[in-house]
What does this fold into?
Amino acid sequence: MGARRTVLLTGAAGGVGTFLRASLPGYGYALRLFDKAPIPGEPAAVVADLADTEALAAAMAGVDAVVHLAGIASEAPFPDVLTANIEGTYRVYEAARAAGVRRVVYASSNHAVGYTGRPADGSLVGADVPHRPDTYYGLSKCFGEDLAALYADKHGISTVSLRIGSCFAEPRTVRMLATWLSPADCGRLVHAAIGAELSGHHVVFGISANTRRWWDLEPGRRLLGYEPQDDAEPYAAKLLAEHGELTSDDPEFGYVGGAFTTM
Ligand code: 15L
It folds into this structure.
């Protein structure tokens, strides 16, 4: 890799994409932006669908890594999820393979394992739990992780799949006091995932160092050197005054995927 690495950001107009457009240049990356929607203030961004093979191939040429964020970010009818997330992710990997790109950072989601229950003994949920999608959306993230494994084994493209919790400017719900990924920690995590010296496919949770977390951050530390700096706890008093503590029979408390398990 050259001194200034070029990173393709798919879904660059979205929520996480917007945070990363702000943070990644600070780590020294040159960003190439791709989204089906125009991005205000970014005239050089490629405005195209992932189904536009030529546009995707051109955007992929010469990049050092891809951060694949594009797709539907919540539950949706299966045909929509199929096109945007399942076919879309396949198209990204095919384009990466054809262009000789060796590293993908894949925006997976906690919803790939959303039906995983909170351990009764207070232990942490590891990144190695089996897939238990809570929605078609979560199922598409399981597919993406398995596709990443296939392209690692067959084509030598290494992927770090980030099972992102709740990446917003601030935690919005009581559940997010545990699942929040701050924008700054998101930048730290993606930077660590782009640069990590590893091969194969690896999965880590993407959350901040939240006092109330119950998903294991250790694999991210060990594999990537990801050291989150933020904690949702300063937002607890306000959110709890508004909503109260979660009860143990509430899916927001009991399942990794929270309310997605009831959608
Ligand atoms: C996700 O995967 C979604 O993209 C996001 O909108 C949040 O709902 C988040 O999960 C979450 O679990 O809070």
Observations:
- The beta strands are 6-10, 30-35, 46-47, 65-68, 103-109, 158-164, 201-206.
